[in-house]
Design brief:
alpha+beta; Double-stranded beta-helix; six-stranded antiparallel beta sheet
Amino acid sequence: MRNHEIDYKIYGDDMQFVEIELDPNETVVSEAGSLMMMDDQIHMETIFGDGSHGGGGMMGKLLGAGKRMLTGESLFMTTFTNAGSGKRHVSFASPYPGKIIPMDLDELGGKIICQKDAFLAAAKGVSVGVEFQRKLGAGFFGGEGFIMQKLEGDGLAFVHAGGTIHKVELEAGQLIKVDTGCLVAMTSTVDYSIEMVKGIKTALFGGEGLFFATLRGPGTVWVQSLPFSRLASRVFAAAPQGGGQNKGEGSVLGGVFRMLDGE
């Protein structure tokens, strides 16, 4: 196996973090900004790309980094290596309320496709790339559906999602339709496309998005109940508008805005 074999433990319920145990010289790679804490003798290093290409040359690294830019991620990732003689630990936290999902890529066919902001951390050797939606026209207008990340390898990877996570096992030919923001991840065997909501009245006045993802089995799909985009829109909708109006609405938000204004 080319990926490092790591052990882990997930703590918490709604605001989870994952603690990864590293043997000497074992390495885990993560997105910048996801570190929570680490033991002494953990060596932290910023690398170009995801570190999975090793001696693939600068051109291969540039291509991999360029693809990462298309997903809105940084050109760089961070590695954490146990440089000591005993076991050491490093922990990564979710950026918003939800769950952390451990995924053994070796058991999932060596590849999963996930939302572009779902990846948290993985064993070194897992490749973090880009999965393009085949129907580019639908993808451009489908929001989250156009570009997704793909995680490839045979090691452990951790993704995070908002709210409650529901795992759906699709039989061959079985089809479900999911709001594009609620789709977290799926195995590579799932046939995936984006469709526009039919009917102008439904699209304009239905209160939902204009697009949904159609997923056809066989394969496994992970769905989240609270996408971050939906959470953020509700927070902004409850924020004060028009130069101080509605500051008193809601005891918690109202108090926060009063503190920010110095009241």
